[in-house]
Amino acid sequence: MPDSAGARRPYLQPLSRSWWLKHSFFLRYMLREATVLPLLFFCGCLLAGLYSLAQGESQYQSWLAFMAQPWVIALNALLLLASFYHAKTFFELFPRVMPLLPAPLMIAGQWLGTIAVALLLLWLFGAIG
Amino acid sequence: MNQPKRSDEPIWWALFSAGGVCFAVMIPGLVLTLGLLYPLGLLPEAAFSYSRVQQLLQSFWGLPGLILAGTAICLPLFHAMHRVHHGLHDLKLAKGPLTKVLCYGLASLLSIVAIAYSGIIV
Amino acid sequence: MEKTIIIQRYNPEQDQAPSAERYQVPFDHSTSVLDALLYIQQQLDPTLAFRWSCRMAICGSCGVMVNKIPKLGCKTFLRDYPAELTISALDHFPIEKDLISDMAVFLDHLQAVKPYLINDSKNTEPHRQTPAQLKKYQKFSSCINCGLCYAACPQFGLNPEFLGPAAIVTAQRYNLDSRDQGKAQRMPQLNGKNGVWACTFVGFCADVCPKHLDPAAAVNQGKVASATDMLISIFKP
User: Does C17 touch chain A (CB under 8 A)?
Assistant: First the structure.
């Protein structure tokens, strides 16, 4: 009788580092995860803003000047897009993790929250009303 | 299979989830006003003036300052560093517990700084 | 009408790694990938090895990668593909020969979550269940253990110790069953770093599941259950 255990030679292809480039589903996943990169930059900006506020008016003015630099505005524009993509994916995942209400209702409710906060901030900083 | 040790991940996952809500609900409006419209000159000059921002953050016993630090800095930081931590694992760049300590350590440190400075200006 | 089927062949007695072989297969509207494999084995090349049984998407044996997406051969049709399609063994499992994977890791993980009703009651009466109680777990009860979700899961590919989608779905299925008392025995497996916490909600498992039972949702509802379990353990040591 042949030795069946000895004849076995299973082949396992280890997952390559670039597995997420293999098809669009994984690419979209990595894009979702990467939305935190511009977010990290903005958190740093806000932290610097709070610090400058404590340092006095001239420090705060130079922080505002930093925020108005074209490359900073460009990164923040990217963050706005990233935050919408994050919101879309996050809002769609939430009803699957906690199915409290019908999913479309939960998704709509969360978008309403985002819109309400944006309107509140626009009103607070004089863009409307 | 042996009984595995309980993971501490629920703590980081709870912070990640709370931060994810902040990222989706707070950040779009904030980056739109502070990061885009104001620097582009599309909001009144006084909207983010030194005195107005100080006054805004210090009103109601400094609660707005704390809310800003919590929902726009601390929780989003934990959200972001959680994804960075798992992203490094996905890219096979994670180096065991070190990556985890660095990721959540940075988020914790910057959160303390944010809360401290939100309090200093109060 | 014919299509070209490219199969990743691997013979453990001769090959160092799998290599592609091409076959011309006639097809019509009803030809499944499994039909095509049977045609190749019976008409063109009797050495081709693959698993199959029921031909109706319930035995879960004929899982293969079709154009790099995990599919059941019997539930996938040549008509939906262009003139060429590539078939290989399921990703993330060791290949024994051709399209036959070694599913032992998956079966070990499934066994670890005790996938059966655990009930100490000596009561010989039937365990009655209301439609509402049935509804709680029913959506997770149709798993056929085909392993497609493991082939779809990069976290399992990166870390083969991850319990994985189907095992966690099945743990949830029994944990949510009103007749079951085994949750305390299953939670320690889910609570570990290779339990629910190895998942990052990639979500591809839900796309490929031939029974549409959303394993990603089950795993992430398992995270809520595990976090709750942790809170309870803090207040009630």
Answer: yes
